[in-house]
Fold this sequence. Notes:
Chain A contains ten helices and no strands. Chain A is mainly α. Helix content of chain B is 35%, strand content 25%.
Amino acid sequence: MSKVGNRSVIGPxxxxxxxxxxxxxxxxxxxxxxxxxxxxxxxxxxIMSLVVVLGAWEYVGRQINPVLFTYPTAVADAxxxxxxxxxxxxxxxxxxxxxxxxxSLAAVFGIALGLVMARFxxxxxxLDTYITALYSIPSVALVPVLVLWFGFxxxxxxxxxxxxxxxxxxxNTYQGVKNVDQHLIExxxxxxxxxxxxxxxxxxxxxxxxxxxxxxxAIGRGLIGMVLADLYTAITGIGYLIARYAxxxxxxxxxxxxxxxxxxxITLTGLLRFVERRVAPWMHQPEQE
Amino acid sequence: xxxGTKIVVxxxxxxxxxxxxxxxxxxxxxxRSNEVLCIVGPSGCGKTTLLRCIGGLLAPSSGQVLIxxxxxxxxxxxxxxxxxxxxxxxWKTVVDNVGFGLKVAGVPRQQLAERVxxxxxxxxxxxxxxxxxxxxxxxxxxxxxxxxxxxxxPEILLMDEPFxxxxxxxxxxxxxxxxxxxxxxxxxxxxxxxxxxxxxVLGDRVAxxxxxxxxxxxxxxxxxxxxxxxxxxxxxxxxxxxxxxxWEELRPSVVV
Lengths: 289, 256
């Protein structure tokens, strides 16, 4: 019983053992060192990959006619100019407003509808055909209809982003509720939870990982919707930048908004992961020894 | 009730899947106030299903379960369950898991905090209050499960193979602790196990269940003195005698 280091045989009294505390400290430091080394390795690989890919792009890009293709230093050069002149931000901000408006509306209504469908079987049966159908239709096909209804300006663009992002959020939220561990539902019943308590303490927290996954999908689709809206309705925002520089064969400048979209995707996903860590720390279980 | 009977299982049967699977049939069982009744039986004898019927999580197909003379339709107040798979909420810390039953019962915050602290200390988890379940060993997780049940101050504690998912050493420690707890706070306990040893060490009486159909074959009185020391119990000749007897009863039901 005095064997230390094995978690499963630790009795409460042993936890006070100073020898054990010392060993725990060593173990904790060792785990942190492993974690640090792992993080360093990840960063190193990322940097190496970046150097190799950008280097290859630079080399190949310089061999090709600049109208057809470009290379990183040219893009960087164009980016510096476009940022300095305020041009990039001016058009990007127009698109970002649309993206955030569309995503926020889709998150609010999508999560709400997903919860309602999961809770009320009649609504589920009444609506699930449409949800599945609309999710299956490529959202692009509906853009002309939205233009008819909402015009060409911000409202229409927001509607496009909403359309692109709404369904994955609904479906994931619904799945999250339906996938709640039945053992935990039974625990709730055993402790005489009323419906409100059951949802607050068990169903909603259990659905959080699914909802977050839905939001992550929605961010990717939302970026597509955002650019599409810029190109298919009134040509404004980041779509305008791409279209304009493409039309005057400034491939290097055209790549600036394209790269910006990639950076935006990475940033938003990272932001979501950060929020997730704060609101749902139990989802990130560190690896056990 | 006059004879101190707390729980009555009255000719209860439970069938599943349109009656094609019989969990148990025609079970008659009384549990007295403040006794520990252990139900021992092999897999498939319906012992867990029976416990869930007593807990009000399942309704028997026929017959009925009464607690304090009331027919059980849904989980009754004053009854707490400890689950084999712990059933801890992964998004709650130890404190919040232990306080779960009190919180949903609307116990005032101050009182809740005091009781939670008391039971966390009682099960030896002081210092782990803010850990999440995944940070705890199996044995510690079940201590949380036990503290959560005890914190509601139940008159009846239903335990569904609570120590079956922890390793053998932890199991013995937990058995000793449960015996100590029972000395401190007498409760009516129904304890499901497939271990004959566990049933004899913990129980005042042992109900032996058999399979096909699931039924109570025999109820034995275990009269080892309390407070009990498991090691001393195991050394008694009567322990060996009863152990062999129960094993002979169970053997025909064990499917390999």
